[in-house]
Amino acid sequence: MDDTGKNLAVGEEMLYLTKQEVMDTGFDVEDILNLTRDALVAHGRKEYEMPAKIGVHPYKEVFFHAMPAYVPGKKAVGMKWIECYPHNPERYGLPQTTGLLVINDEPTGCPLAIMDATWITAMRTPAVTVLAAGALHPGAEAFGMFGCGIQGIEHCKFVVHRLKKLNKIYIYDIREEAMDRLIKEVQPLIDVEIVKGKSPEEVTKSCQVLSSATVILLDPLAVVKDSWVSRGQTLLPCDLNTFWDPATSKRADKYIVDSAEEHMLFADMGYFPDGLPRITCETGEVIAGVQKGRESQEELIVCSNIGMAVCDVVVGRAVLDRALKMGMGRKLPL
After folding, report:
1. What distance in Å separates the CA atoms of residue 216 and residue 62, rounded to the nearest whole number?
2. 8-state DSSP, 224
C-alpha cells in the first residue's frame, strides 16, 4: 500500500472534498498543464485503460456521462459522473455542468475519495486545448475563443502559458455581458490584449488558432462557415461537431481527436450526421511524439477534444494526495 494509508484508513473511510476544498489544494495553471500532459502522454503511448463514455439522456438536450479510467504510471484509477443541463442557468439559476469524481486505491480497489468534479473539468479541458495548440501551432500570434463562459474564461487564462508569441486574443459570445465578464476577470491576469470580436466571421479570419466551448448538440449549428476558414489555421473545438461547419473538418489536412473510440461512439449516437471525418491520429500521440503534428505551414488542422477520463483521474489523484497532506476535507466511514 502507498503513502495514502498514512493519512487515511483505507477500506474503513474515505475523504470527501467540496469544490472549494478541491480548489484550495492550490494547483496553479502550470501544475494542471503538467498533470494533463502526463495523462495525454500516457494515452498517446497506450499506457492506460479507458472505455468510451457511456451515458443516459433524460431529455434530448442533456446527458449524463460515466467516465472511468486507469493510468498505471500515476496510480490513478477512478470514475467521473458528470452531467450537462444547458438550460440550468436561465431556468433554475444553477450551473450547466455538475459532477462528482471517485478515486480508488490501486492496490486494494477501496474507494479513497469522492470530490466535486466541476473545477477539475474546468481546468483539464483548457489544458488539453492549450497543450495541443502549443504542439500544433506554437508560433501563433492571435488566438480566437468562441464561448465566454467558464471554459472560455479558463482557455484565455491558460493559452498564454503555451502560445508565447500571442499578441491578441479575440473572443466572441452571443451574450455581450459574458464577453465583458471574461475581459474583467482575465485581462488583469495576462499581458496579451483581449479584443471583443464583432462577429464570428471577424474572429475566424483574424486568428491562426481558434477554439470553441459552446454547446454539444446532435444537429450542427455551423456558426463558423467553411468559407471563412483558411489553410494554415488550427481549430480546436471542445464542442464536438456543433459550432463549426462540418465541411471544414471533412476537408482538413489532419483531423486529430483526443479519443478515436469516443468520437466513433458519438458518431454512432448521431452527432456526426454527415459522417465522422477520417481520423489522422490522437492528441496524446502528438503530445507524446508518437505521431506527427503540423508538417507544413499550409496545413489546415482540426483537433477535436471532447474530454477524457484519463485526465480527470490523474488530476483527481494529485488533488487527493495533496488534500491528505494538508489535512483537508472530511473523512467519512465506509
Report:
1. 9
2. B
Domain check: are 168 and 265 in the same one? yes
Instruction: State the Cα–Cα distance between residues 290 and 277, nearest whole angstrom.
Output: 21
Looking at the fold, whether 227 and 98 belong to one and the same domain comes out as no
Q: Is the pTM of this model over 0.90?
A: yes
Residue 50: domain span: 4-120+310-333
Dump pLDDT digits (tens) for 219-251.
Answer: 899 999 999 999 999 999 999 989 999 999 999
Q: How far apart are CA 115 and CA 318, in angstroms?
A: 12
DSSP string computed for 241-274: TSSB-HHHHHH-SEEEES-HHHHHHHHHTTS-TT
Contact between 129 and 234 under an 8 Å Cβ cutoff? The reply is: no
Q: How far is CA 54 from the centre of its chain?
A: 18
Cα 104-107-108 angle, rounded to 5 deg: 65
Amino acid found at 150:
I
C-alpha cell at 296: 507544413
Separation in Å, CA 261 to CA 55, 145, 182: 15, 27, 34
Question: How confident is the model over 112-163, as pLDDT tens digits?
Answer: 999 999 999 999 999 999 999 999 999 999 999 999 999 999 999 999 999 9
C-alpha closest to that of 8 among 114, 116, 117, 113: 113
Total domains in the fold of the chain: 2
In contact, 133 and 163? CB cutoff 8 Å? yes
Contact between 151 and 128 under an 8 Å Cβ cutoff? The reply is: no
